[in-house]
Amino acid sequence: MKTPVYLKNYHKFQDAIAFDIELNQAKVVDWDESINDKILGHFTLRNNTFFFLYTDGGRLFLRSECQGFNLNDSSTHLSIVTAEGVTYFQAQNENEVLEIEYASWRVELDQDKPDIVSDIVEDDDMTYDFFHYVYALWLDSGLRNQTCQRWIENSEKAFARKA
Hints:
The protein is 28% helix and 37% strand. The protein has five helices and ten strands, in the order βββαβββββββαααα.
């Protein structure tokens, strides 16, 4: 594995993987404080498939185990809808379509509050749902650029301390 990109689990604090972008391979790594500063994205596991959100070259990417989407590319389009306890997420570009359906985070947390059918991402959605977070980043170029910049700066500081 070449120099990996470290990704943090979106839902668990001390869970990380080293992700090789070129080979599209990931392996679980032991968490320690040195990894915290090298985080260049997040990952999640849905329907037995890993999904990776990371920055590379100042751009933000969403990858599954076999598909990839540049969130900065104008040909990439995302949609997300939650209704009756199910979230439907779709990513597409000129060459690929990714569709995933899963129980909404409110159902998973057994909340009495009903799901909201809307294309507006609420703060709670971004906090508890990986794909709502991805969708919010895609919608808001300012937030997307800030996120990339923060991850890049963290990584640069970590590598500077190493030298």
